[in-house]
Write a structure and sequence with these properties.
414 residues; mainly alpha; transmembrane helix
Length: 414
């Protein structure tokens, strides 16, 4: 298990490096406004994906037989395609009327449903790979997806596609990578004996996923994407592009630490829980201290060198991204500390606490945007306030995870 986790984590690290290098090229092809439109479309689509899929992909690893799992994945994708078509038609129709939507760029009516649908295909492919134990495919995905996406976005950009080139590149990466994950699953079930459930029975059996997990998925996605959406609404797409690129660059160390340490930590505390060992909270505290030291170093670097380094890496037009990174550094630091430890709640069986924190963090960030908008605050002040609000949400999540670690200790220590 540890070897498999290390393989996936290593591939993810390579993928993050490829995505980072791709970003350095993309900022020299696309304008901040184009990147802002793209980042906002991705943010909205990420929130739409749980609704149009019904989160049925989350049920794939637990479906009783393999053929039924593939059929349920197909049902999720078909439902996503149908709802995406309805969304596209609704936006296109509304754009023809005298409504606020009519002032939005025409690409939005196809870009939002396209990205949402391609993301559902990608997620279903991931879950099928998990079900069939295709961990090598998951590792390949970690490198293949960012390579395809970044490569296509660069080619479309050179072909002068504008912001739509970023969307087409992302969808291309999703669909092609999903196909490589789907192919082994279909091959393994094509000649397999056994009867699968009917579509109606499958939907009835796993109805709790669209009823309960879909809204939960939207809240979780919104808690992450709300800063991008709020900046776009308050300050326009050019500033949203600066913020989105800043968030993308700062997400690299968070993802690397979360993948490399999170897998090992989760596996270790799960083993300790099974063994009835009473040292889980000590492991939590020791790891938290080390992560805090790394986060502090990162904050010091961002505050002192963030602006010139961003301008040097991305080019002078992106200097503001470095300025915003300074304002948002507290949120990134708390995320780096909390993300690898967040598996504690799941292993302790406290999944409802995670939902409560996501909802609370979303409402807190939303309230911050409303207050800053009423105050006519500047971009820098707004990003600082939102960053502190987001950091507060991560801090609460850290405390809940530590309490869960202590509860695991208490339940096994006697």
């Amino acid at each position: 298990m540890l070897k498999t986790s290390a393989l996936i984590a290593g591939a993810t690290a390579c993928g993050q490096l490829i995505a980072f290098i791709g970003s350095l090229v993309l900022v020299r092809i696309y304008t901040p406004e184009a990147m802002g439109i793209y980042s906002t479309i991705v943010a909205i689509s990420t929130c739409l994906a749980p609704l149009i899929s019904g989160r049925l992909e989350m049920a794939l690893p637990i479906v009783q037989n393999d053929r039924s799992a593939v059929k349920l994945a197909a049902l999720s994708i078909f439902g996503a395609l149908l709802i995406s078509a309805i969304i596209a038609g609704s936006i296109a129709f509304a754009s023809l009327l005298d409504s606020p939507i009519s002032t939005i760029e025409p690409m939005w009516w196809w870009a939002l449903p396209l990205v949402s649908f391609s993301l559902v295909c990608f997620l279903c492919g991931n879950q099928l790979a998990v079900r069939f134990g295709s961990y090598r495919s998951l590792a390949i995905r970690g490198v293949l997806y960012p390579s395809l996406m970044s490569g296509a976005q660069v080619l479309f950009g050179l072909a002068m596609f504008g912001s739509s080139g970023l969307v087409w590149g992302l969808a291309f990466g999703h669909i092609v990578t999903a196909a490589t994950l789907w192919a082994p699953a279909i091959k393994r079930t094509r000649n397999r004996s056994g009867r699968s459930y009917s579509s109606k029975r499958l939907l009835r059996k796993y109805k709790e996923f669209p009823i309960f997990l879909a809204p939960s998925g939207v809240v979780n996605a919104l808690s992450v994407q709300l800063p991008q959406l709020g900046i776009a609404l308050m300050f326009g797409m050019a500033i949203a592009g600066q913020f989105g690129m800043m968030a993308k660059i700062l997400a690299v160390p968070v993802a690397l630490v979360g993948q490399s340490i999170g897998y090992v930590y989760a596996g270790e505390i799960a083993r300790l829980k099974r063994d009835g060992t009473s040292s889980i909270v000590r492991i939590f505290d020791r790891l938290a201290i080390r992560l805090a030291a790394v986060a502090l170093l990162m904050v010091c670097f961002i505050v002192t060198l963030g602006e010139p380094v961003f301008a040097w890496l991305l080019g002078e037009p992106w200097r503001m991204a470095g300025q915003l990174a300074v304002m948002y550094s507290a949120s990134t630091a708390l995320q780096l500390v909390t993300a690898p430890l967040s598996q504690t709640l799941i292993i302790a069986g406290h999944t409802k606490s995670q939902l409560a924190v996501d909802l609370g963090r979303t409402l807190l960030i939303l309230a911050t945007f409303i207050i800053m908008s009423n105050l006519d605050a500047s971009v820098e002040a707004t990003v600082l306030a939102v960053g502190l609000s987001s950091a507060g949400g991560y801090l609460i999540l850290w405390f809940l995870n530590r309490r869960a670690a202590a509860n695991i200790q208490g339940s096994n220590g006697g």
